Structures are given as structure tokens and as C-alpha cells.
């Protein structure tokens, strides 16, 4: 087994291809971009920002600076000063434009569309069962395009908007618009791009679907997931931890590309002196069974939490299995921990693989993904690779 471990770490060390070219964001420097209110460019290079703003139009339930500052998770005094308003509870006229200061990583920003509840009702057949594709998630059609419409609480909405309007990447589910609820009886809805094939778990759960998921597509999905996580861990400031990576939260497009979804539990992280990025958990974190990193029980979170969950999803991807009862999926690959001959290990790996593949996969690639998943799900987070290591390793296999 020592030779197998040597194989995976050689791949990690030997993959020298740069990954920055994979990122879908604008690298134009701040100095190259003239000031233009509402510009699509924002920048946080070296903790400095270009002078640009988003424009928000006041509407019911969000007609005071106090409410608007909570919506965007900003200091109300900053917004008051910027807009020459003195009272945070002053009621603004509907439609009044409010400048919102924006600080985020260099990116091409996509402004959110504002939808009326009536539009969403028409798009979904009045939120009927035929359009329902998940818990409080509906399929619809707006402006001739398919969309996914998700009902969310106001606090979750603020968090998701705060993150997804600041980042842009092809492997993250894109937020298109919002419909703010006017009361508790009319909740808020977020409108996302539609993933034709549903979640990765949908594809793996039915034999007829998993049969379509041939090996090359699985490798591509693994790489797409890694690239998306690498982006939020290493390519933006501040960095984010998704906190709820699972096969249910990985969406698959019509051309079999993966997009990470559901950022409602995502948290910002900062680097500590010892180089380990971490922050205290605020509130209850709901991770999928089998995907929760052990250190979460000690009240700490870091990018290695996502790495652990990524490893679990890799095991699902190659086996089509999922955690059931008290049996954790990572315990199913105990044969990789040593004590087996190379031949015995290969046979156990074959029995672990998704039977719908019918053996049509390179054994060395399957072994590589299984070993990578094992490394990702190590008990000690310091022993897990970073997403930077993972992307470098996977780039040699694609």
C-alpha cells in the first residue's frame, strides 16, 4: 500500500499546471478601471477598493436605512452618510434610490432582477405540485428561460445575496433575481439559474440515470466541484467556507457540468498566525449526515470542513452509495488503510464501485479518486489536503 500512497502524493506534487486560468472572474486591476457609479467592476486587492456602488430602490419592508443596512449586512452609519440621510428610521419614498457601498473581490458583477410575486406565480403555476422540485424549490419559466425559484427566510436571503452578488464563477449556481415578501404570509423568493439534470444525488439514486453517468462525466464533475470550492477558498477576499457540501447541493447541468448551490450556511474565514483559517461557529450548522467534519462538534470551522465533505461526495460519485443509518460512507473504504495486498485492495475497490458503470473505468483513476477521498476525510483536519492540492492533483487526471 505504500506504493499507492506514493502514487497519490506524487500526483499532488507533480501537477504544476497553474489553475488561475480556470477562474471565471475579471482580473483587471483597480487602477485600470475609472470610477463609474454602478460600475460592474469592484475590487478588494490588498484590502483596497475601487470607488463603486450598487443602487438599491426602496420598497415595502425595506424603506428605512436601518432595514436596508440589515438586508445588505452593512453599517447603517456608512449608508446614512453616503446618501445624506440623518435618521436611520426615516421612511423613504417607494422607489427612492439608495447608494450601497460595495467591497468585494475583482469580479464581473451581475445585478439582481426584481420580480413581483404575481410573476413567480405565473411562472410556477401558482407554486403547484407539478412545478415542485424540492423542499420549497420550484421550477419555472421567466422571460422564456427556465429558472429555479427557492423560498427562503429573510435572514437566509440576506446571507445568500451578500455572498452571491459578490462572487461569480461558472461552477457556482448563479443567482438571477429576488422577490421580496411583503409580509410573513408572502415570503421572499430567490431566483436561480436552472440545472436541467437536478442534483448529483438525483443522478446517482436511480439506476437508469446513473447508467448515463459514465466515468468521464464523473471525473469532470469531481473537477468542477473542486474548482468551485477552490474559488471560494483561495480566489476571493474574504474567503468563504460553504459549510453544507453534499451530493444534494451539487447541481448538474444538461451538458454534465457541476455547479455548487445552497450558500445559506456559508461563513467567512480569516487566516490565523499558524496559517490555519478558522472562525467560531455562530448558531446551529446543519450538515448532511456523513458529511460533517469531526471538528465541527468542537465548534470550529475552516476550509478543511468543505474538504471533508468533498471527500464524502467523491465516494458517492464513484460508488453511487450514500450514508445510511450509523454506517458512514468513509468507513466503507477501510481497505485503503493498509493491511491488504495490492491485488486484494483492487478487488475490494471493484466491489465498492457503482455497478452501473459495469467495470467501464480505468482502475488507476478509480483508485486515485478513492485514495483522494480517503485523504480528504482524515479525522485530523491538518492531515487533509487543501483545495489547492486537490485541484492540482485532479488536473493531471482530466
Q: CATH top level of the largest domain? A: Mainly Alpha
Q: What number of structural domains do the residues give? A: 3
Radius of gyration: 23 Å
Subunit arrangement of the protein = single chain
Low-confidence stretches: 6-51, 104-108
Shape: elongated
Strand content: 15-25%
H/E element sequence: HEEHHEEEHEEEHEEHHHEEEEEEHHHH
Which strand order do you get reading across the main beta sheet? 5-9-10-8-7-6
The number of helices is: 12
- Major sheet, described briefly? 6 strands, mixed
User: CATH superfamily assignment of the largest domain?
Assistant: Transferase(Phosphotransferase) domain 1
Instruction: Determine the fraction of residues in helical runs and give it as a percent range.
Output: 25-40%
**E-strand count:** 16
CATH architecture of the largest domain: Orthogonal Bundle
What distance lies between the first and last C-alpha atoms, to the nearest angstrom? 24 Å
Instruction: Let me know the average pLDDT.
Output: 80
Please state the structural category.
alpha+beta
Can you summarize this structure?
The protein is α+β, with helices and mostly antiparallel strands.
